[in-house]
Specification:
single chain, 263 residues, alpha/beta, Rossmann fold, 3 domains, 12 strands, 27% helix, transmembrane helix, POTRA domain-containing protein, membrane, transmembrane
Length: 263
């Protein structure tokens, strides 16, 4: 195999070409290094303020800590400290069942951030009757368990006791959408009537909800299907014409029919 010998002038141009290429790479690397160091170390890009909106008073610090923990530890942003403007993305990946959405707005010249959380509205309590009696707030839209809640004895807040032995926790939905919507329909008609109920018990096997009043009267509803408006009209008529003490139970589980048993 013959060796290829370049003429001196061509060899010199060839060598100069590689010098320029490697020199350009080194120069670009140095520029990027110094730019990155400036962005990271310069006090000009240190945040002056982080505002938290929509979070309950007293929970701002823990909320911010959770958001900071969710920031990606990969990529260029991970090189910056948490108080650096460039550490924060324009869109957060952090999610919390208590909030419908969480957004961030960045203000470059003010060196400030505003994190806005839109809370989900607490609707009622969902309690599980397992080895440890547990109650959670849930929302009206999805039946999403939002956060733990104390057991409530009064009638101001609707409280459903779920007899299931399954395990549910924060972030879970309590029922399939259609069944949950039927539960909400029942509650939205019952609560304005101000019935002095003792408890509402839900049975997933029969797909029925039993409402027991303080006087012992029982109202039975099915959440397998939507309870029609005529059932609630019948209930209102029943309450006008009879005292709760006169009623043993009223069964509204069959569409368009009411089964009543007096004491």
């Amino acid at each position: 195999m013959r060796d290829i010998v370049l003429p001196p002038k061509r060899k010199k141009r060839h060598r100069w070409f590689y010098v320029k290429v490697y020199g350009s790479i080194m120069l670009a690397t140095l520029v990027l290094f110094f730019v990155g160091y400036f962005l990271k170390a310069s006090q000009y890009f240190t945040l002056n303020e982080i505002r938290i909106l929509g979070v309950p008073e007293g929970e701002e610090v823990s909320f911010l800590a959770d958001v900071q923990d969710s920031l990606s530890r990969r990529g260029i942003r991970a090189l910056f400290s948490l108080d650096n403007y460039f550490r924060w993305p324009g869109k957060l990946s952090f999610e919390d069942p208590k909030f419908m959405r969480i957004s961030v707005e960045k203000y470059f010249f003010a060196r400030a951030l505003t994190i806005t959380a839109e809370p989900r509205k607490r609707y009622a309590l969902w309690c599980f009757e397992d080895t440890k009696f547990r109650c959670y707030w849930f929302d009206e839209m999805q039946g999403l368990l939002l956060e733990e809640a104390p057991y409530s004895e009064g009638q101001l807040i609707a409280r459903i006791i779920d007899t299931t032995k399954q395990s549910y926790t924060i972030g879970d939905t309590v029922l399939p959408n259609e069944q949950f919507d039927n539960i909400v329909t029942i509650l939205n008609h019952l609560m304005p009537l101000h019935i002095p109920f003792r408890e509402m018990t839900l049975d997933r096997v029969t797909q029925e909800m039993m409402v027991t009043t303080v006087s012992g009267a029982v109202f039975l509803f099915s959440f397998r299907h939507e309870t029609d408006a005529s059932a609630f009209s019948s209930l209102e008529t029943l309450l006008r014409e009879h005292s709760l003490r006169e009623i043993e139970y009223a069964d509204f589980t069959v569409p368009s029919k009411v089964y009543l048993k007096r004491r």
